[in-house]
Amino acid sequence: MLHAPAGRPKISHAPCRRAQVPLLNDVEAVEQLQPGSLVRFRCMAQYTYNPEMFAGEYDHVNLSTGERVRAHAPYCDAMEVPPGFTADMTDQVIQLMERLPVHCMSIPHESSWVSLSGSAACGGQGIALALQRAKRSRGDDSMEEELSAGPSLCVPHSHSSQSAMDCDGCDDENKKRLRAGAAASETSTAAHAAGGRPDLVPGAPHVKHAAIVKVYHDAASVKVNEAYEFVGILCCDPVLEEPGTVCGFVEDAQAAAVRTVAASTGPASSSVIPRLHAVTFRQLSPSWNPALDLLSPAEQALRRTALMSALTTTRARVVNSLKSALMGDGLAAEYLLCHMLSRVYHRVCEMPVGKFSLAITGLPAAAAVGTSATKELVAVMQGLRPAVAYVPMSIKNMNSKLMVPKMNFDTEMLHTGDLQVAPATQIICDETAMEDGQLDEKGLKNLHCLQQLATFQHILFDFNFDWMKFPTDVPVLVMSQGRAKPLMKTDVVVKLTPDSGAAAASQAGGTEESPEVQELCRIYMGLARALDVGVNNEVEQMVPSSFVEARKVCAGMAGVCIGCCSLPSVVFTVQDVGELRVLGMLRTDTLAKQTLC
Questions:
Q1: Residue span of the structural domain in which 583 resides
Q2: Structural domain count, the chain
Q3: Is 157 domain-assigned?
Q4: 281-297: pLDDT as tens digits
Q5: Which of 421, 424, 439, 474 is the most exposed place for a label (fewest CB within 10 A)?
Q6: 3-state secondary structure 289-345
């Protein structure tokens, strides 16, 4: 009979407490963190393995006296048998438990300001580059008491691996382990450069942080592609066990053969990719706002009050920055803001309700050559959204890159793709990068997957014999050059109308904003996107009547194309668009009372 570990350890989710726990995302190398310490990991669940069984409870038997001591083994990779004892794992004594291994990677395409905001919010305590955790013994206090008093941290004098060994709170054994970890880090880095070290995430050599997270509680709630923050015990032992032994016990021939096969499949060992035994975790839902995440409730209230006092000005600054990147086109900037704030809040027969894919056409030829306009827009959007994925749709890129995750049954590993992103990631498909040429079978498949994502908000997984659909929520923006209709189909097409005067005015007024203003803009974007959708009677009457009037003017219009034809102002005015999505289809006074208070 399988059992779950009894009772989840009590860990405070208060921002001030979580900020004191070192963040795995902030270290240059995982060897800088002390094995056995409590760490956080902000990540995306890339793949879930089959649940694994482990010896949760068993007995330690004293070889001299025969005394029995009950041992518990959750939250660790291997059993530790004290000297002079042996482990009794007979069927009458052992208690098997179950945990779920999840291959997690740092959130793809995360904007740089997310980590900087977290570090600034916790006063530098969350930056794990300079933090070392003292090894905890079995006689230490509980995790709850440790967090209440603040974790014991050792601060090295520099960021080098050598300085990490000189922490005051580490004994000789810890220093030996740190030296071994530093040596393993240098060796593995050299092996990786030579092509001998496996990637932390298959198919993504650029991924800097990844871990196999062992989930003990509420494992059924962990889903692929979702973003989480795990808090758990780090296991990263660079000293591999001798062949033929497991946890100090000699293997028989059959067990050794099974271990040899397992070593050639599945994830790499903990010397390459660390294990994190999750004590607790939380899902980073679409309402997650990294600009407010680690602030205390009082500080969050101050930020919300500051935003409310400058709500109109803040929105105008956001529109102005987008307008400057769109060469002075104010209408395109309004629609782009609505697109960035859209989210899927319901599904009807697999059709997403609330998604708003957008295509902007008419970019000048210079943008296609140097992609200057697109790059400027990407930079602006990265300053506003937590994650932005840029997908250049060149012939070479479409025909060669892996866009969707694909299962490798030889290694039993899922190779990630460019489109495996966390919810709320902004995706920018750049058609201006497409040159003359022909898409091959792989390129057409990638184009199909992009279209499925834009239309149905599904990320397709290639399992060779079949395709699986995983629902998601990512706004898809298409940038196109000079075409009335882009290659990809979207909900709305806006033809860019450059305004040199407005662009110059936007650039003149859009000088480098202060950090406080940038923070307000990010808070506004996060709160506005998280708003619940509600349609009042006035809007319900306006939408169908406006659409009927538009179809009368453009009877042959297949979809909504703004700027391509002369539509009456009754269709959608700029103010209508702003109120419909920017304020979540709620009145401004409702926003102030229900959301920002």
A1: 297-595
A2: 2
A3: yes
A4: 999 977 788 888 877 77
A5: 439
A6: CCCCCCCCHHHHHHHHHHHHHCHHHHHHHHHHHHHHHCCCCHHHHHHHHHHHHCCCC
